[in-house]
Structures are given as C-alpha cells and as structure tokens.
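fold-stage: in
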Amino acid sequence: MEKSSTNHVHDVIIVGAGISGINAAHHVQRKLPDSEYLLLEGRDNIGGTWDLFRYPGIRSDTDLHTFGFGWQPWQEGRAIADGDAIAQYLRNTAERDGIYSHIRFQHRTVAANWSSELELWTLEVETKSGRVELHTRFLILGTGYYDYNEPLQAEIPGLSDNFRGTIVHPQFWPKDLDYTGKRVVIIGSGATAITLLPNLAKKASHVTMLQRSPTYIMSIDNATGGSWIHKLLPRAWAFKLDRWMFMWMIIILYNFCRLFPERSRAALEGAVAKQLPKGVPMDPHFRPLYKPWDQRVCFTPNGDFFESLQGGRAHVETAHIKAMSSDSILLDNGKALEADMVVTATGLKFCIGGHIHITIDDEEINLADRYAWNSAMLQDVPNLAFMMGYVNASWTLGVETSCQLVCRLLLHMRKKHYSSVIPRLPKGFSMEPRPIWNLDATYVKKAQGFIPHCGNTGPWRGRTNYFVDLWKARYGSITKDLVFRAVKP
C-alpha cells in the first residue's frame, strides 16, 4: 500500500466522529477559534455507536436530555430515543455547528507516534486511496470504550460446536435477519437484553431472556416536553431546564441508592412486582444479589419490557447454562429451552484508543499500565487526551468535563508558550490503583487489565459527580502533577 505524507502540522486532531468527537470539536473551535483542527472518522458516517449498532429497538440507555449536548439540547418529546433519531441529531448538530466540514470520513487512524525531538504526533491514517501521515501538536481520542471490530466472546459451553440454529451478537446484527416465528433466547440481563426483548417479541413466536442473575429494572414515563415549563418558556429554554432536571434526578437517584441501599432495593423491587404477570415470582428472576448501582440500573421506557411479559410473548429464566444441544439450551436447574436463535447480549469488549498503535519515540506503550490524570490524560504520555463518560450518569456529561478541562489546558499552554504537557506522578509517590469504571458487571471486570486506572488521591482520583467534576475542570488546578515544556526557540 502506497504511503504519502505531508509536512503540514495541525493544532489538534480528534479521532472519532461520535458523540465524544463532536463534543470535543465544538469546544475546540469555540474556545480556540484560531486553532486548526481535523476530525478523523474511520467509517462512512457520523455517529459512532449510533451508526454501527443495528439490532432491533436500539436506543439510548440513559435519557437524551443529558446524553445530548448542553450547547445543543435535545428537543424531542421523549427522554429515551432510538438509534436512528440519535444519529440524525448528531448529524444535524455537526452541520449546524460548522463541525461537519472538518470531518475526514474513511480515515482510520492506525498508529500514532510522539516525537520528543519535534514535539509532534505523527498519525498513520488509512484512507481509500492509501495510507497517509498527518501531524498534530495535540491528539484527542474520541474513540469510545469498546471494540468496534470484535464482540466480547460469550463463554457458553457448546454454543459454537453443538448449536445448529442462528447465533447473533447485538453489535453485529445482520441487516436482513428474519426472526419471524422463531424461538429466540437472549442471553444476558443488561440494557441491551432489556431493549431487545420487547422488540424481538413483536415478530418472534416467543422470546426468553436467560440470565445468570437479575438486574434492577426501572420503568420511566418516556414523554417529555409537555410540562407547564414548556407552556411558559421558549422551546430552547424549556429543554435546557429539562436537561438540568434530569441531571439532578440521576444524581439524586444514584446517591439515594448508595446511602440507603435497602430502602432503594425495596422501592425498585416493589415497582417491578406491580408490573409482573400473575404467577411470575420476584425471586429469583427480579431480585438482584447486589445493591442498587453496584451495576447500572436499566430503564424500560413506558414499561415496554413488562408489557411483553404480560402479553405472554416473552418470559425470563434465571439459571446457569449447563450445555447446548443442536436446538436447545440445557440449564443447571434441569430445564431445556428450545431455541431457533440465540442472541449473546453479554456485554462489550473494552478497547480504549480504538486499536491505535501508540508509541513514544517509536517505543510502544500500553495504555492499561497508565494512571489517568483527571480521567482525561495519561501518565507520561505527552499532549494526548481521551474521552471517558460516567457509569452513574450519561456518557456525554463525562466527556463534557474532559472537553472543558482539555481546552482550558490548551489555552494555558498557549498563554505560557508551552509546546507540550506531560502528566507525571511526583517522584517517590506511591499511588493505589482504583478502577476508572467502578462497576461490578462481568464485562467491566474482564476489562480491568486492558484499560487505564485511576489513583486514590489528587488529580489521579476518579470522577465523583458531574457538578463537582465540572467545577474542577473550569476552576481547579491546571498545573498539579503536570510537566510543561517551553516552545523551542
């Protein structure tokens, strides 16, 4: 493959045109308007997750008022929306904000090398016409947290060897898959499984959600935009207020669950019990073994999950898989689930950095070996930021704090005539590692050896909540545990 290059140097290159990359681009062009930036996207379209995932009913697992941008509020009359609506919102926002013209589609970043001598990143980028080299002073990774190329392999005995039906992973849903009249078993109990069940039940003969252990499920009224606020205030103002109310609601819910786990458990389980069909027991199907928010609470808009159970089109089984036969799943409780199709909704495979081969002076670095400075930069890695969302709130709020922090840092560097910045632990300081995502979910536990970690003190600590983190991003120290280098004369 022919390789071409250019000596032109960009001020900032952002990798990824999903919700993280678009947010970063907005803040860069707004706060550093004279900076030259590019946004590189490996796919043909904008949207990231919302352009990739195609499984039936794909939707957000948090409300769109906080998942959308604060600078361009979500203005549809529903809190949780489908993937197509989210992708269209991102496209419209990028065009309206002038970001679209900065995007280079079908530009997949393969490698990035930092030169200490030149104080530049050199990116190797794969395009339709060959590989090119691009240069930038600062690199922002808006590549999300999961692997776009490979799913998390489900550890199910005999699935690939014995089962003769259709096996599907939600991340790679076939475009023309027909499951009409099929017996479908969804393996998993997270947000994806809870989204899939009511949507598959519309066509399948029957859908079973098979889980090893249950999760907390909360029904919400999905209609927004009809309150007295919307009758009194201009549309844009009213939806901004909706965003603030949803932010506070999630924070209050999360902290209440943490402070009063037994009361929270009773409230959540009590609401579920009222929506179950007669004869369906709470235990073991809807009584989680963990405390609320040790794993994420799953939302079902307008209770569509429970409606499917009420109609008899679907049911839940709680057991471990013992073995697979050609047309059924054998459980450790002695039951056998007949199946024409198995959907492995068991989580996503973590991948920070989108498989970009990152080197410093041609020496490979492992991102998982690094502590994260303010959950936005990496220990001993110059001029590089990555976008990471919350586990107890929407992804976008976490990205927002990182964007504010990074742009403030870039302005500081410009003012002081610095060419590079490196997060660095104080010499001789002993840091205790903490997970960057403190969730008890199996797929998160499996990923701990492959993602950066936080520390237990100072700017190395993980995030707490949006309002605290936003204050730190805007007004906290911009120099602690950072090493700056001046522009060479």
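fold-stage: in (second)
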Amino acid sequence: MKGPLFYSKILLFGEYGIIKDSKGLSIPYNFYKGALKKEETLSLSQQASNKNLRRFAGYLAEMQEGNNLVRFDLDKFEQDLEEGMYFDSSIPQGYGVGSSGALVAAIYDQYALNKITVLENLNREKLQSLKAIFSQMESFFHGKSSGLDPLNSYLSLPILINSQDHVEAAGIPSQSTNGKGAVFLLDSGIVGETAPMVHIFMENMKQEGFRKMLKEKFVKHTDACVDDFLKGDVKSLFKNVKQLSHVVLDNFKPMIPKQFHELWKKGIDTGNYYLKLCGSGGGGYILGFTEDFEKAQKELKDYKLEVVYNF
C-alpha cells in the first residue's frame, strides 16, 4: 500500500486573524509532502507514527458518535494499522507548514465514507462541509483548529478565506521567473508548539485593548495584504506587509522567539525585508517578504532561507 501524496501548506496571511474573521490566504507548498504507507517491520519512528495513528483512530470513533458530519471505515483503518501502516512524511513538525494537516487529509481521503472528492464541483457549501470536518479531525492535534491546513492539503489549491464561513479556491497571480522580489521561509531552528501559542492568544483576547488592536490594526492590514497579493499590487503589498510586521512585533512578542526580535526590527528599519509569523509562531519557520531577495540574503546570511514565491 502506498497512499496518494499530500503536501505542506503556507498560510501567507491570516494567522490568528482568521480566528477573529480576518481574511486569509493559504497556498500549497510542494517542497514537503506525506503519504500513508505500510511495512512489515517498522523502524522506531514508524512505530511512533503507527501508535499516534491508533490514538487518532480512537478519537475519530468518538468524533463520529457525537455528530453526523462524517463517517469513517474504522474497521479498515484498524486493520491497516495492524498490518503496519504509518504516515511517511518529510513535513517538519512544529514548523507552521501543516504537518498535521497533511495527515488529516490523507486519513479522510483513505477512510471517509461518502467523501467529497476533489473532482467534484466544489461549491461554497461543499468547501464549508470539508472545512468543518477537517476542523473537528485536526482538533485532535491542536486543541482548536480552523480546518484550513487539511483543506489546503486535500485540495492542493490556494485557498482564500473571506470569513470563517466563506472559503473559496483562489487563483493567485503567476510567479515572475526573473523578479527580484520574493516570499521566503527563514528557519528559526526551533520547534514551535501550536497549543501554547494559541492559549496565549486566547488569554490576550480577554483584554479589550488587545481586541481593539486586533480589529483596527492586525485584521485591517491582513485584509489589505490579501487583497494586494491577489491583485498583484506589489507596491501596496509591501507597504501593508511593513505595517503588519510592525503590529506583530509590538503585540505578538511571545510568538516571536526572543533571538529574532532584533532581526525583525532591523528589517522594518532598513526596509530590506519584512518578517511575519508563519502559522502560530513560537519557533518553526518565520515568513519573510522582500523586494530584493539578494539584499535580504546578505542581511540574513546566518540563516537558512527557502524561496516560496517570486514577484
């Protein structure tokens, strides 16, 4: 057995904001991928994956008791686990590129009964159903999930989030092959944990000042970035990304690893690059935007950078 491949994703805009109805834009990132596989003898890491899948199977059994959103062929799932199934993935965990999302997509694809397939006409209703199913499934890993990562991985299409109950597949401007500008990933070298970061955010949301900042600054600039990116208005995009980077540095400090605070500020001050959170933060990848990648590379020469999109 070798299941189909599911890719990692990058949430370009919308981290945290989408919990509070900002727009968001998520794109597949084919550099990392995962698939369900079976082996007769499992290595230690494959055994760990098999064990994790067993716990997930138990969670899905409870989940389908409590709702009629989706049913799974759990007998088949259990049988495959007995036969040495595991999730073979190159997607780094705790890096904000959707490792659990790809796993959820693979399990749904393999075991959901009456599943919504990628080949159907994916109207708004079907996308919402998928997002709701994936949100419940992925909550096993994070405590609270929007369902977007698995949706992106399952469809392998850019996803535009207009609001929590309005999601659509999006066309994004094609990349410029000889452009100087780029969106890139910077490897922080630290593994991030999603649940504690979301907890800090939820605690902050209890303060009126934080809620006001989120609505008037964070969501405003996030929405503008999404609109600019989809329109291909690079000039306006960088103006808004700079503002967004500033708001994050001022208000989301716990989500930025301490040793990157100076680097973050330097980007804003020089204008050579702007950094933002990739996923929930706390480590993993940091997302960067630059109008001149060579210049950014020189400034960030001590770090490993990966280009994900060229302007």
